[in-house]
Amino acid sequence: MSASTTLYNKYRPLKFSDIVDQNHIKITLQNELVTNKLAHAYLFTGPRGVGKTTIARILAKAINCSQRPAEQFEPCNECSNCLEVNQNKFLDLVEIDAASQTKVEQTRENIIAAARVSASAGRTKIFIIDEVHMLSASSFNALLKTLEEPPAKVIFILATTEIHKVPETIISRCQRFDFHRIGVDDLEQWLAIVCQQEKVEYDQAVLKLIAKQAEGGARDALSLLGQVLSLSENKVSLDQASLILPRSDLSVISELVAYLCKQQAAPAIELLNKSIDEGIDLVQLVKEMIDYLRQGLLLKLNSNQDKLRYDLDKVYLKILREQVNKTELANILLMLDTLLEKFGQIKFSVIPQLPIELAFVIICQSHLSAAPLAISSPLTPEKVLPSKEEIKNDYLPSDQNITIHKTTTNTTATSIPKPMDQVIPTEEITKKKINISWQDLPGKWPEFLAELKKYNHSLSAIAQICHPIKLVDNELIVGFQYSFHQEAMSNIHNQNLIEVALKKIFNEDIIWRPIVDQEYEQREAWAAEINNSVSSDSSDSVDVAEAFS
Ligand SMILES: [Zn+2]
């Protein structure tokens, strides 16, 4: 028996409280045990190695434990029934691997006929059918009849990693529990406890590496730890672990990303090759780089929240935050997109690192839109919304028959805000005089949105939630609440489409200039007004992602 299986057997949970995570499932089952309201059939679904059969066995043991007080849920692990379950000798616990018994004859004989044979006095017969999705259609049909009219004192626990292959008729007969991957932090803590009990020294970085590598599976995590321990009985060092665990180095990854952010392909390629020469696993490195960038993407989208769980060390999380703050969303998307595409080409490449080198060059060569404009000084609401008098005097359109007034009954004067001097970008932009004024915009805005919709639904949808802020000669400054919208509306392709639509409706060359608007919410009235005048079309499914392409 190898060291890893020894460790796995040794630390396999024997009671509910030993199980890492899956609290939502434990609590429900424990409650059913205490109230004696057990189902006839359970369906456990989720990834491999997250505790499905382990919990099934503990449940079977708790049900049959002869010393369990009615108000408790944990099996005693001391009575003869408990001991027999732990030693795989309990005759009324039948474990079936459906993958090796797919035929209907086997199902009839080993499950259905066996279920009719009563359990020993005072016991409940438990069938654990693992990988149940492997059963044939006729096997499922045969099983269904038994699930519909279950024999007394029989409980079925079906487990599967592929719930979509289990017929709906079977699922609906079972109480279903969805197991999830175990969090890296939980796995890491659990591995530390195992190390302490094994009295081995450990490097926390190795445990984190194992926990990440196990991808949420407790069984894999323990197997990997066992393999690392088999190299040296009482120490878990990073050097040893790197012999077994695919190793990459976060410092290399963050340095590579830093080069790519600065569009420096040459030093990035140099560092990549140096790392490979030093023994870093290319596939693992790129995988972790994609993971690193993905976390950067999540940070970018939730910059004010800490709700998401980040698996990075604090040091690297800080570095990543800084990189993300200085990098546009479009740039992060480009890096992820390119690496994901080129990653798949590694195994077909004569020179394995060539696709990744190409990815670096593509990322650094790609034209990226200029840094977004920002409003330099926050505006107070008083400055943003002009008084009604001001609007009446200066800003109401002279043509009172424009669409916006025809279609809206409760038009208020504040719905057309005063253009603001404060938002003029400081840099000089080539402008030209046009025959369109700010006052002309609201009337034709719905037409513009409709025109844009012909080219791209999602662009039109995003344009609906922007607020035009100011028209400076032929440059139209529009505000968005979120930078990801602003960036989507700034990319060259989308900008061209928008400007074509503007040209068609206003018959002028208007420059589209999206900004992130710190005062967005104060301008809500404007958008509400416009949206009211756009006929809503509920049959359109708007795919916002389309605009980001
Ligand atoms: Zn017991």
TrEMBL record:
<comment type="function">
    <text>DNA polymerase III is a complex, multichain enzyme responsible for most of the replicative synthesis in bacteria. This DNA polymerase also exhibits 3' to 5' exonuclease activity.</text>
</comment>
<dbReference type="GO" id="GO:0003887">
    <property type="term" value="F:DNA-directed DNA polymerase activity"/>
</dbReference>
<dbReference type="Pfam" id="PF13177">
    <property type="entry name" value="DNA_pol3_delta2"/>
</dbReference>
<dbReference type="InterPro" id="IPR003593">
    <property type="entry name" value="AAA+_ATPase"/>
</dbReference>
<dbReference type="GO" id="GO:0006261">
    <property type="term" value="P:DNA-templated DNA replication"/>
</dbReference>
<dbReference type="InterPro" id="IPR050238">
    <property type="entry name" value="DNA_Rep/Repair_Clamp_Loader"/>
</dbReference>
<keyword id="KW-0547">Nucleotide-binding</keyword>
<comment type="similarity">
    <text>Belongs to the DnaX/STICHEL family.</text>
</comment>
<keyword id="KW-0479">Metal-binding</keyword>
<protein>
    <recommendedName>
        <fullName>DNA polymerase III subunit gamma/tau</fullName>
        <ecNumber>2.7.7.7</ecNumber>
    </recommendedName>
</protein>
<dbReference type="GO" id="GO:0046872">
    <property type="term" value="F:metal ion binding"/>
</dbReference>
<dbReference type="InterPro" id="IPR022754">
    <property type="entry name" value="DNA_pol_III_gamma-3"/>
</dbReference>
<keyword id="KW-0239">DNA-directed DNA polymerase</keyword>
<comment type="subunit">
    <text>DNA polymerase III contains a core (composed of alpha, epsilon and theta chains) that associates with a tau subunit. This core dimerizes to form the POLIII' complex. PolIII' associates with the gamma complex (composed of gamma, delta, delta', psi and chi chains) and with the beta chain to form the complete DNA polymerase III complex.</text>
</comment>
<feature type="domain" description="AAA+ ATPase">
    <location>
        <begin position="38"/>
        <end position="183"/>
    </location>
</feature>
<dbReference type="Pfam" id="PF22608">
    <property type="entry name" value="DNAX_ATPase_lid"/>
</dbReference>
<dbReference type="GO" id="GO:0009360">
    <property type="term" value="C:DNA polymerase III complex"/>
</dbReference>
<keyword id="KW-0548">Nucleotidyltransferase</keyword>
<dbReference type="InterPro" id="IPR012763">
    <property type="entry name" value="DNA_pol_III_sug/sutau_N"/>
</dbReference>
<dbReference type="GO" id="GO:0005524">
    <property type="term" value="F:ATP binding"/>
</dbReference>
<keyword id="KW-0067">ATP-binding</keyword>
<dbReference type="InterPro" id="IPR045085">
    <property type="entry name" value="HLD_clamp_pol_III_gamma_tau"/>
</dbReference>
<keyword id="KW-0235">DNA replication</keyword>
<dbReference type="GO" id="GO:0003677">
    <property type="term" value="F:DNA binding"/>
</dbReference>
<dbReference type="Pfam" id="PF12169">
    <property type="entry name" value="DNA_pol3_gamma3"/>
</dbReference>
<dbReference type="InterPro" id="IPR008921">
    <property type="entry name" value="DNA_pol3_clamp-load_cplx_C"/>
</dbReference>
<dbReference type="InterPro" id="IPR027417">
    <property type="entry name" value="P-loop_NTPase"/>
</dbReference>
<keyword id="KW-0862">Zinc</keyword>
<keyword id="KW-0808">Transferase</keyword>
